[in-house]
């Protein structure tokens, strides 16, 4: 039937979001062919459709000629031709009739790139399924291959020969050459180097294999191992020997812009064979082990920018010390600048000394920045020495040793367990605070918890005000739907440091659950924070760049308060960590409750169904900013001590950068619960939640999953279809065969099935509002006879 078809179609779309636009599958690209940079659809796909060669638009800067994973929604780029020199819209790449392959920019008419150093006689080009783009002659001999000209990535079946290099890109989205290089050298060793940016010349290596054998190759073999081989083919040393199945995962090894060489995998589809892997690139292994400690050079910025501090967490996390802020949050290499006027050396130094104080930081060290050293010294002596010295920006102190360090600080890092104390010299500007600032401190203590250390100087306060105003204007333009809230100002949330949460969760040990965007851990707060159990949700795939939006969303989630919602208690927003702390729900999720061993009683189920509807109503209509949940499903409904339903995960859709107002290829939500408008070019409204609720309601009523592969009968596989069939044929008793209680309360059961059918109407406008839905469940409003949910689809498909 049509509904089933629609379901299957949606399912397919979800699996293969791009297959419909791959047009030149498997064909040779003949002489005279060209591609024009117009949109993201200008490409040649490989026969399997897994790789594509063509143009990708890089923000507003222009187009990049590249090869990418074409079935991965992010379209991850693995090779590029013109990262330093993007071309403008309308530019073309052409395989000329003479067999030359070149890229010309339309605005200047100049040749930007050409596939060079190959013999003559090219008769065709091809995008191969391995991710290799080749130019070949009549005998299919490859005269040029992208595999021989790697940029920052290698793929399975690709090899690197001696003197080949990979260059990291500059930032995640800037494909220009960055600061790191991987080289397979003629002495046979693979090494990682920082470069003398912006030059390509190299510093000393920060990682190296340690072999004595020339004539080697770096191999990324077909099963996903990465190793160095001798000329006779024997393995000399492994670089990555973590293995996952090639059938189930895409793989790549990339020298990332942060200087870490990572072996990544991405599940080809969801399903049992890939277990609990996120639908995202996950790191299988990486080199070096600790980049913060490995880069040790007395010039240049190191792993992070000047004045920054590096913390190792599968790569560098760069943070500014207390009293400093990022020069450019999108570019860590720009470093940090003090928020205050540094000490002046103009006058006989001491007059200014009393205006400074020290912020302490454990284990932070700038090992190669020192310009002066004292021993033996007490800590107090060390502080005075730094205060009296206008060159001193930081003093490091340990066991009677005192190091003075000047500006700019570089190669800063956290050295866990070193016992070194950093004393960061900061200007005390409290005497110059504007009076309004002082008042606000007294009046609104809660502001301080969030803004905390930022509110140091008056100029910083003005900055925040400015940002706030900008935010209010921008968010009004961008998101007219949301009632605008004042970020920061109404806040009952606690700010946690990453360290506190690490402690609370015992090092993120006990995992409660895992989704595509986050992992949830059980934790317990310190007794000073009343020792409660909490659920600590670590967001994994947050887009890091919009600090303000994060805070705004957090404050909007933080202001919700309803007995059918899981309460947000606090959050952590430190470096790259974005963590939410919720109250802990002792009785697990509705999924466990409904689909567990014994069937829960009908009265409880009804209470739960009603509770969820009330929670949704609150999100949709009653709280200060309207929240579309976008992912209502049993796993996201938790149960409290008294088996009351609590909706969790609300408000996250926007945080995870899902554009809610328009359908895109990135679908938030879970198969089966996802409303059809996600797959069509229709606006996303509150009604998507009503749809998901309808599916959920059927599951609650029938105590089975919407999709059941092992159903008795094919017609019963999809509950939504089967329920409508039963309802239409007046055979509802089939639905509740094993449920005596339900059979006794047939009238209510029928009513609930009818409500559910109203909710899952294909046409969003036919679905009830959340308000009406709640009234129907409560029995205040009559339920009329629902139409076939799919009538709308069949008329347009
Ligand atoms: C193309 O894709 C990039 C990145 O995926 C995106 O930023 C850009 O807006 C897209 N352009 C079009 C025309 O869809
Ligand atoms: C591509 O062209 C070569 C040489 O003309 C030929 O041998 C090969 O079969 C062609 N491949 C396809 C898929 O058409
Ligand atoms: C990429 O970074 C380089 C180096 O900072 C800069 O010169 C270039 O303009 C950037 N390119 C883009 C497209 O932002
Ligand atoms: C790849 O290398 C691993 C590790 O040496 C080996 O076990 C595997 O058989 C190799 N696969 C292929 C296809 O050569
Ligand atoms: C291959 O070469 C390595 C070192 O060059 C040597 O140790 C090894 O015995 C050789 N293996 C074979 C099978 O020749
Ligand atoms: C800053 O200066 C004020 C006024 O002199 C003083 O009361 C305060 O303790 C100083 N703060 C710090 C952190 O030293
Ligand atoms: C302000 O916050 C601090 C720390 O959270 C707390 O100890 C203090 O009691 C608060 N003061 C007021 C007036 O709320
Ligand atoms: C059904 C169920 O698991 N109920 C439990 C809910 O949580 C409370 C408090 O932890 C337990 O006492 C109940 O047994």
UniProtKB/TrEMBL annotation:
It comes from the Eukaryota. Gene3D superfamilies: Bulb-type lectin domain, Phosphorylase Kinase, domain 1, Transferase(Phosphotransferase) domain 1. Transmembrane segments: none annotated. Residues 506-781 form the Protein kinase domain. It is found in: Membrane. It is a single-pass type I membrane protein. Pfam families: B_lectin, PAN_2, Pkinase. PANTHER family: G-TYPE LECTIN S-RECEPTOR-LIKE SERINE/THREONINE-PROTEIN KINASE SD2-5, G-TYPE LECTIN S-RECEPTOR-LIKE SERINE_THREONINE-PROTEIN KINASE LECRK1. Belongs to the protein kinase superfamily. Ser/Thr protein kinase family. This is Receptor-like serine/threonine-protein kinase.
């Amino acid at each position: 039937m049509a509904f089933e078809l629609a379901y299957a179609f949606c399912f397919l779309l979800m699996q293969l979001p791009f297959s419909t636009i791959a047009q030149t599958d498997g064909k040779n690209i003949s002489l005279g062919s060209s591609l024009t940079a117009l949109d993201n659809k200008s490409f040649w796909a490989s026969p399997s459709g897994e790789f594509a060669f063509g143009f990708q638009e890089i923000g507003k800067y222009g187009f990049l000629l590249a090869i990418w994973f074409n079935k991965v929604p992010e379209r991850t780029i693995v090779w590029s031709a013109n990262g330093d020199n993007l071309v403008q819209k309308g530019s073309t790449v052409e395989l000329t009739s003479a067999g030359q392959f070149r890229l010309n920019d339309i605005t200047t008419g100049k040749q930007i790139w050409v596939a060079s150093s190959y013999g003559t006689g090219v008769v065709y080009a091809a995008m191969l399924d391995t991710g290799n783009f080749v130019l070949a002659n009549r005998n299919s001999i490859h005269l040029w291959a992208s595999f021989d000209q790697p940029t920052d990535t290698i793929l399975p079946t690709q090899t690197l020969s001696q003197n080949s290099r990979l260059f990291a890109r500059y930032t995640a989205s800037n494909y220009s050459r960055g600061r790191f290089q991987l080289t397979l050298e003629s002495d046979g060793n693979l090494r990682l180097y920082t470069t003398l940016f912006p030059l390509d010349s190299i510093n000393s290596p920060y990682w190296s294999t340690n072999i004595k054998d020339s004539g080697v190759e770096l191999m990324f073999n077909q099963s996903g191992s990465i190793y160095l081989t001798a000329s006779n083919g024997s393995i000399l040393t492994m670089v990555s020997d973590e293995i996952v199945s090639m059938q189930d995962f895409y793989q790549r090894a990339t020298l990332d812009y942060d200087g870490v060489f990572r072996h990544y995998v991405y599940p080809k589809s969801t399903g049992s064979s890939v277990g609990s892997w996120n639908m995202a690139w996950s790191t299988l292994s990486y080199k070096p082990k600790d980049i913060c400690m490995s880069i040790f050079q007395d010039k240049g910025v190191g792993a992070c920018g000047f004045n920054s501090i590096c913390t190792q967490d599968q790569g560098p996390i760069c943070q500014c010390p207390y009293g400093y802020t990022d020069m450019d949050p999108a570019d860590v290499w720009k470093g940090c600048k003090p928020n205050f006027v540094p000490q002046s050396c103009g006058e006989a130094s001491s007059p200014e000394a009393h205006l400074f104080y020290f912020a302490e930081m454990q284990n932070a060290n700038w090992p190669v920045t020192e310009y002066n050293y004292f021993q033996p010294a007490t800590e107090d002596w060390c502080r005075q020495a730094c205060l009296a010295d206008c060159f001193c920006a930081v003093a490091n102190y340990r066991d009677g040793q005192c190091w003075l360090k000047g500006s700019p600080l570089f190669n800063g890092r956290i050295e866990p367990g070193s016992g070194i104390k950093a004393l960061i010299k900061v200007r005390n500007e409290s005497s110059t605070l504007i009076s309004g600032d002082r008042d606000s401190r007294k009046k609104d203590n809660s502001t301080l918890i969030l803004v905390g250390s930022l509110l140091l100087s008056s100029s910083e306060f003005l900055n925040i005000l400015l940002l706030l105003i900008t935010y209010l204007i921008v968010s009004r333009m961008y998101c007219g739907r949301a009632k605008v809230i004042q970020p920061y100002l109404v806040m009952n949330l606690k700010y946690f440091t990453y360290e506190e949460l690490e402690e609370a969760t015992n090092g993120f040990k006990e995992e409660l659950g895992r989704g595509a965007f986050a992992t949830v851990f059980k934790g317990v707060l310190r007794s000073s924070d009343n020792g409660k159990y909490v659920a600590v949700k670590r967001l994994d795939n947050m887009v890091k760049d919009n600090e303000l939006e994060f805070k705004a969303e957090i404050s909007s989630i933080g202001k919700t308060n309803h007995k059918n919602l899981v309460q947000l208690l606090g959050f952590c927003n430190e470096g790259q960590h974005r963590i939410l702390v919720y109250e802990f729900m002792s009785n697990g999720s509705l999924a466990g409750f409904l689909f567990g061993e014994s069937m829960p009683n009908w009265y409880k189920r009804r209470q739960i169904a009603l509770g969820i509807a009330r929670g949704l109503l609150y999100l949709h209509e009653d709280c200060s900013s309207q929240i579309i949940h976008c992912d209502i499903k049993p796993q996201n409904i938790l149960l409290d001590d008294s088996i009351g339903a609590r909706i969790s995960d609300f408000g996250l859709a926007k945080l995870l950068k899902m554009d809610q107002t328009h359908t895109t290829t990135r679908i938030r939500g879970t198969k089966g619960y996802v409303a059809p408008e996600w797959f069509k070019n229709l606006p996303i409204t509150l009604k998507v939640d009503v749809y998901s609720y309808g599916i959920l309601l059927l599951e609650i009523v029938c105590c089975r999953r919407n999709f059941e592969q092992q159903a008795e009968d094919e017609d019963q596989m999809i509950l939504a279809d089967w329920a409508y069939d039963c309802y239409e044929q007046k055979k509802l008793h089939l639905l509740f065969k094993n449920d005596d209680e339900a059979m006794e309360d047939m009238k209510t059961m029928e009513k609930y099935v009818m409500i559910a059918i109203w909710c899952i109407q294909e046409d969003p406008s036919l679905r009830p509002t959340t308000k009406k839905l709640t009234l129907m469940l409560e029995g205040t409003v009559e339920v009329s006879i629902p139409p076939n949910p799919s009538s709308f689809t069949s008329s347009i498909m």
